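Lecture 7, part 2: worked example. A protein chain together with uridine-5'-diphosphate.
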Amino acid sequence: MAYTKRFDGRGFEEIRKMSAEVGIISRAKGSARFQIGDTIAIAAVHGPRELHPRFLRKPDKGVLRCDYDMVSFSVSERKRPGSSRRSMEISHVTGKSIEPVLDLSKYPNTVIDVFITIPQANAGTRCAGICAASLALADAGIPMKDLVVAISVGKAGDKVVMDLTKEEEDHAEGATDIPVAMTPRNGEYTLLQLDGDISKDELKEALVLAKKGCDEIYTLMQKTLRDSFKEKK
Ligand code: UDP
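Predicted complex, written out as structure tokens:
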């Protein structure tokens, strides 16, 4: 099916409107909010602090523990509260996507907790969560080699598109969702998932789009952090 005009009127390579802020939760060591379209992610960082129970401790490095949770009222059809296979999977891949920028050997026997909450969801929540988590870790003053930036690209109808909405995921024929996270400075991927079908050439095209999207988000994230450091001075 030819997908000629996006449901929300955006260009095929256009990201939804974004905003970001850090230091939004006073009791957390670091915190951030990242919004992309109607999708909002809030992240709070606690630690590094002693890990309990003791048997979970690693004497040579700290443990990064990510916890992703979508609240019940975040989606139109009430989501059952609490953990699910989906939230466990997203928590796991979020941690894996962020770990490469941290030097956990600096924090033996400790844990760095990152709590990600989605108060409002319209697709792309794991990517928004990764951006928020990355900002919150930087806000917490945890040394990082780079920020981890994430965007979902994919296919709607016959088009390769940037930043799919839930409507596109559900109603565009043959929709394919590809969440991508990367460290823009060295261009390495730290997350690449794929839900749906796509040809090799289309995947290449989608990854070019993901790089473009991540660069745009990176600019916003860097500006957000720079502005907050200026305010703290
Ligand atoms: N969603 C929903 N109910 C759920 C889980 C997900 O309505 O229990 C919606 C929500 O808008 C989410 C989207 O489906 O953003 C896509 O979910 P997916 O599991 O693909 O992860 P995401 O794209 O949010 O990273």
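The domain at 18-232 is CATH 3.30.230.70 (Ribosomal Protein S5; domain 2). The chain has a mean pLDDT of 96. Keep this in mind for problem set question 3.
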